Amino acid sequence: MTDRSLWSYKEIAAHIRVQPDTVRSYRKHGLLPRPDHVENGKPYWYADTIRTWVTKRPGNRGRRE
């Protein structure tokens, strides 16, 4: 089943257990995938986009988030 809920920096941060500013830094440095949606200048990602990214990101060390 596809999870199409949209996550902001806050939800992504909670999912990977970091601060929202860390997620913003990841985006600034090109480490996050492109946002799936932008509303009023704020980026959002589908939960499935982030879950896939988590499994492939450097430093994952096999953790399941």
Automatic annotation (TrEMBL):
Q: Which domain of life is it from?
A: Bacteria
Identify the InterPro entries for this entry. DNA-bd_dom_put_sf, MerR-type_HTH_dom
Q: Where is the HTH merR-type domain?
A: 9-42
A family per Pfam:
MerR_1
What's the protein called, per UniProt? HTH merR-type domain-containing protein
